[in-house]
């Protein structure tokens, strides 16, 4: 096994690599060793069009979002806008907004490709489609992976996606986060191999210093932004995916860290991976590290190809990049936009907008007719057809492993997030003593009325308190954690049942402990009947109501996307449950159309059980007064046991609904059903290449690359050379091919 070499590099070494000199790239032993070898995967997209339905007010021009070029069947009449009835307006119109307009291109193994373009040009949409992260809309066109027709869902099975926002549980350390990802995703490795892999990735991403630091958030101080980003990359990289997608990995980072992250991405590409990153506006240093770029404007390709050829290409289009200018800045300021301060003050703004639009149409048309675009058209019909094997698919651990890891993580989260646990315990003690003092020694009150009123009030408060105090914390805590769950689940780390059951299992000790604490304090302060059986029933009811509270809180947190909406809706639901909780409204006198609420109120069942438990055999001045008090309360026909059974049923129903609400979330992150294929992602990947593609297309050169790769450190070179050959061997642009070859060999 090759030794682990850290890629700690100086600014000088990065600068050297920019010049394309043959710098020593210490990739040997780092995820390029035999046991973690990467298989080349080529992504091709043909006529890729993506549109979403947007709601416009009736005053918005219907054709505002129609495609502006003829790339998407210009002969077809635009679909008429549909009107929808709206409660708050005169009716909303639905229009199709075309976000990507018939894109054709390819991302090659062994190369770092960047998707560039102004804000709103469709960069994230493109990468989301390729990574299977699109949630809504309609996708037309073909996606090919090594010559197989696939959906984004299938590409997701062989890739890692690092989103722009790094959603990682704040209380985990860097090493714990990477180890968790490795354990979940690499079930076939032995613990020692897994540890080795984690060690390698930490070394590769220069995270040694931060390995024991927690990720942190706005409250907990944790790792820096750059370390957090590198940790997110490491979590994906640890499963050794052949394809990596990154959405703006350098945003928010300082210049040096941004360069370092891009350098690492280039190294990852050199080890045979297909690395595609979205970049907003890269610096000159970063730009020169890209192998290929794709420049988008309003969902259209303006350029795709080698980064080093882009300036020459735009010179041909008629835009000459001045010497010593960052090409990326030049594209933005002179090609994609033409900044002129005078335009801001101009009166004829509409004319200027039209002129700008037709200028961009020309740039886009130039691309469509260029030999570079023809080259990609050629690749789209002659893709690589290298086999895709079962081993290349992201692996998943078993339910038991997932449950154990998530349970341990949730436990650590509780211990490290001590505040939340402490507040829960303090709340139980505080409310126990507070309410105990209010209703201190109930049987010692002067009058029977005072006794029954206080006893009913105290027991009602117990039920309300247990419901509330268990529901509210879970809403706020879970709303934050939910994002982590959504992201991790989407990235294929674990299944919904593993998360759901581990999450609820960790709550069990709390839902038993805090009501017990509260019950012990209040039972003796209230002066309730000195009977062990009655005490344990009191405690059991408090615990059951507490569980219902947790179930209700989880349901509320999962049911709404927005925490503010949850916080507004929750009291609206709790209030009727409380009003029909048995104390305020007599069970028989409630109007029929509202009376049913009492049968879904855990507070009602809890209060009924507590009241029956205490009033049965209750004496005042030696006289049995409990039955009369119970008659006055008219709690209904059920005894203690039946009320407890109803509490258990309600809590089961609440948990089932919470599970369904989470399932809805998960289904939504999988995207619209119409975006998915009937063929499973696995079958799409393991199928043979499409019959129209020549067998072993480009494979000979890729195999040659593999042979070279067996020598440590040379795999990247071999792969890159192979890829270039595959890209250009049968290209009609022989001149361009030769040029590409030279460039690639030089940069490798
Ligand atoms: N689901 C959607 N519904 C409506 N509009 C959408 C949807 N998804 C994307 N868009 C729109 O499509 C356009 C392209 O969005 P996208 O996020 O891909 O752009 P981008 O180039 O990544 O921008 P940025 O650099 O600002 O992130 C934007 O105008 C965006 O508002």
TrEMBL record:
Pfam families in UniProt: ABC2_membrane, ABC2_membrane_7, ABC_tran
Q: Where is the ABC transporter domain?
A: 85-323
Report the transmembrane regions from the record.
425-442, 457-479, 510-529, 535-558, 565-585, 640-666
Q: Reply yes or no: does the keyword Magnesium apply.
A: no
Q: Which UniProt key words apply to this protein?
A: ATP-binding, Membrane, Nucleotide-binding, Transmembrane, Transmembrane helix, Transport
Compositionally biased, Polar residues: which spans? 732-748
Gene Ontology CC, one term: membrane
- Mention one GO molecular function: ATP binding
UniProt KW Transport keyword: yes
**Chain spans, region Disordered:** 1-20, 56-80, 726-748
What topology in the membrane does the UniProt record assign?
Multi-pass membrane protein
Localization of this protein: Membrane
This chain's protein is named ABC transporter domain-containing protein
Q: Which organism is this protein's natural source?
A: Dimargaris verticillata
């Amino acid at each position: 096994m090759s030794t682990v070499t850290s890629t700690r590099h100086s600014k000088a070494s990065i600068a050297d690599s920019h010049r394309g000199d043959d710098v020593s790239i210490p990739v040997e032993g780092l995820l390029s060793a035999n046991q973690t070898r990467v298989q080349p995967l080529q992504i091709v997209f043909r006529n890729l069009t993506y549109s979403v339905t947007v709601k416009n007010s009736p005053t918005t021009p219907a054709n505002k979002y129609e495609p502006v070029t003829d790339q998407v069947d210009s002969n077809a009449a635009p679909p008429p806008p549909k009107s929808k009835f709206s409660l708050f307006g005169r009716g909303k119109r639905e229009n199709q907004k075309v976000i990507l307009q018939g894109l054709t291109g390819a991302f090659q193994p062994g190369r770092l490709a960047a998707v560039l373009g102004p804000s709103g040009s469709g960069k994230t949409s493109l990468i989301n489609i390729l990574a299977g992260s699109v949630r809504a809309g309609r996708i037309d066109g073909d996606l090919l992976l090594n010559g197989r027709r696939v959906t984004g869902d299938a590409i997701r099975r062989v890739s890692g996606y690092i989103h722009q926002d790094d959603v990682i549980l704040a209380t985990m350390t860097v090493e714990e986060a990477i180890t968790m990802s490795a354990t979940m995703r690499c079930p076939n490795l032995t613990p020692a191999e897994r540890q080795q892999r984690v060690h390698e990735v930490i070394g590769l991403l220069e995270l040694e210093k931060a390995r024991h630091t927690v990720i942190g958030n706005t409250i907990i101080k944790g790792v820096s932004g750059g370390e957090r980003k590198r940790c997110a990359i490491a979590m994906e990289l640890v499963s050794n995916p052949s394809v990596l997608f990154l959405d703006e990995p350098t945003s928010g980072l300082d210049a040096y860290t941004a360069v370092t992250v891009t350098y690492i991405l280039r190294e990852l590409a050199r080890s045979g991976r297909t690395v595609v990153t979205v970049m907003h506006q890269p610096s000159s240093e970063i730009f020169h590290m890209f192998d290929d770029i794709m420049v988008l404007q309003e969902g259209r390709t303006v350029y795709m190809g080698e980064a080093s050829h882009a300036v020459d290409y735009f010179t041909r289009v008629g835009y000459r990049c001045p010497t010593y200018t960052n090409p990326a800045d030049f594209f933005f300021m002179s090609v994609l936009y033409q900044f002129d301060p005078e335009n801001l003050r101009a009166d004829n703004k509409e004319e200027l907008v039209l002129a700008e639009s037709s200028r961009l149409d020309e740039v886009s048309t130039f691309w469509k007719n260029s030999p570079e675009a023809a080259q990609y058209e050629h690749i789209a019909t002659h893709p690589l057809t290298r086999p895709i094997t079962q081993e290349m698919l992201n692996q998943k651990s078993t339910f038991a492993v997932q449950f154990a890891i998530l349970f341990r993580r949730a436990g650590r989260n509780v211990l490290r997030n001590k505040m939340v646990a402490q507040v829960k315990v303090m709340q139980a003690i505080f409310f126990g003593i507070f309410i105990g003092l209010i209703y201190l020694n109930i049987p010692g009150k002067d009058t029977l009325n005072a006794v029954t009123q206080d006893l009913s009030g105290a027991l009602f408060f117990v039920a309300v308190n247990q419901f509330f105090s268990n529901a509210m914390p879970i809403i706020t805590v879970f709303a934050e954690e939910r994002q982590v769950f959504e992201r991790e689940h989407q990235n294929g780390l674990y299944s919904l049942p593993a998360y759901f059951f581990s999450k609820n299992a960790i709550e069990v000790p709390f839902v038993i402990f805090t009501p017990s604490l509260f019950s012990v304090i209040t039972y003796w302060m209230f002066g309730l009947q000195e009977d062990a059986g009655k005490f344990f029933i009191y405690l059991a009811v408090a615990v059951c109501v507490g569980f219902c509270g947790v179930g209700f809180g989880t349901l509320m947190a999962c049911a709404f996307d927005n925490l503010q909406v949850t916080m507004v809706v929750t009291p609206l639901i709790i209030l009727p449950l409380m009003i029909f909780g048995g104390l305020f409204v007599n069970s028989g006198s409630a109007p029929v159309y509202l009376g049913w609420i009492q049968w879904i109120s855990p507070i009602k069942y809890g209060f009924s059980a507590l009241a029956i438990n205490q009033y049965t055999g209750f004496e005042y001045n030696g006289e049995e007064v409990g039955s009369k008090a119970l008659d006055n309360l008219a709690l209904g026909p059920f005894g203690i046991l039946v009320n407890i059974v109803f509490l258990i049923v309600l809590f089961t129903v609440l948990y089932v609904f919470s599970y369904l609400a989470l399932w809805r979330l998960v289904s939504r992150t999988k995207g619209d059903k119409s975006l998915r294929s009937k063929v499973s992602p696995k079958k799409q990947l393991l199928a043979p290449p499409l019959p129209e593609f020549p067998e072993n297309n480009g494979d000979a050169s890729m195999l040659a690359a593999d042979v070279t790769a067996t020598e440590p450190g040379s795999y990247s070179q071999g792969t890159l050379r192979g890829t270039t050959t595959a890209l250009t061997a049968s290209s009609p642009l022989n001149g361009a091919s030769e040029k590409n070859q030279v460039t690639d060999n030089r940069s490798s």
